[in-house]
Structure to design on (157 residues):
């Protein structure tokens, strides 16, 4: 191998190592939680995206939809973090992420959605590492006016 080829190989290896480290750093700052629909909302899918922001965690919830008979329009999504797992939730919720509950919908162009998918964003006053290290579940409920029904749940792993 020539000196030039060796230098190129070393440079490429260093670049790939840097990309891998950057990828690991990003992965440590983000977490995706799959949200399973409850029987009252069967057939719908959801995800929660958790992004570290210092001693807080941004939580963005996206769900495919909700049947009109389940929730009035515009849709309000109430997000809670419970201790425990979806199969055995601690009560009351450890964190209520309800600063913003009016869901946005790309199909309706913003803040007054009629059809899904729906999205709502809030911030938890808890670092992402604490969520990863504990046994927590994210629960999405309908508005109190719609019965406060649990419609999605996902375990934070």
């Amino acid at each position: 191998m020539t000196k030039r080829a060796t230098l190129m190989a070393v440079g490429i290896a260093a670049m790939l190592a840097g990309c891998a480290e950057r990828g690991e750093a990003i992965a440590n700052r983000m977490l995706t939680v799959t949200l399973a629909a409850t029987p009252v909302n069967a057939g719908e899918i959801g995800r929660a995206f958790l992004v570290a922001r210092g001693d807080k965690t941004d939580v963005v919830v996206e769900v495919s939809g909700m049947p009109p008979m389940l929730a009035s329009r515009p849709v309000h999504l109430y997000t809670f973090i419970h201790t425990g797992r979806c199969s055995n939730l601690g009560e009351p919720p450890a964190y209520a992420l309800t600063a913003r509950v009016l869901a946005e919908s790309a199909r309706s162009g913003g803040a007054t959605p009629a059809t899904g998918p729906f999205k709502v964003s809030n911030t938890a006053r808890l670092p992402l590492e604490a969520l990863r290290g504990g046994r927590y579940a994210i629960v999405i409920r309908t508005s109190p006016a719609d019965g406060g029904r649990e419609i999605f749940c996902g375990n934070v792993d």
